[in-house]
Amino acid sequence: MTVMSPIAEDTATRFAFSLLRSAYLDLAQTLLRIDADPARELLQAVEHRIAYRLGALATDEVDGTEKETALARAAGQVQTVLRDAQAA
């Protein structure tokens, strides 16, 4: 495995996310054209699973406020893609 600098790793991660985002949106559009109702149910189920995982990633601070972690921010970006896919 290649060891990358943090900047290179961040760039690779952003590029991979961009590719997956495009692929997911294309897939969602295709499914919605084939059969809209089951496609929306599937997309909503995936979105709910992400929302559940997002809630599990939040960590509680001593004073009870939620601290947003890097993973939670990433999950939020994924959730945005899922919502965009349903709007397609």
Describe this protein's structure.
By secondary structure, the protein is mainly alpha-helical. The chain has a domain at 35-88. The protein is 78% helix and 5% strand. It contains 3 helices and 2 strands. The chain has helices at 6-34, 36-57, 70-87, and strands at 59-60, 66-67. Strands 1-2 form a two-stranded antiparallel ribbon. A hairpin with a 5-residue loop joins strand 1 and strand 2. Helix 1 packs antiparallel against helix 2 (36-57), helix 1 packs parallel to helix 3 and helix 2 (36-57) runs antiparallel to helix 3. The longest helix has 29 residues, at 6-34. The mean pLDDT is 83.
The low-confidence parts are: none
The gyration radius over C-alpha positions equals: 16 Å
Q: How many DSSP-defined strands?
A: 2
Q: What is the share of helical residues?
A: over 70%
Question: Which band does the percent of strand residues land in?
Answer: under 5%
Q: How do the strands line up in the largest sheet? A: 1-2
Query: What is the residue-mean pLDDT, rounded to a whole number?
Result: 83
Calculate the terminal CA-CA distance, rounded to whole Å: 38 Å
The chain-level structural class is: mainly alpha
Total helical segments: 3
Shape: flat
Series of secondary-structure elements, N-terminal to C-terminal: HHEEH
Q: Biggest sheet, open or closed, and with what strands and sense?
A: 2 strands, antiparallel
Quaternary state of this entry equals single chain
Short précis:
The chain is built from three helices and two strands. It has 88 residues and is mainly alpha-helical. It has a domain at 35-88.
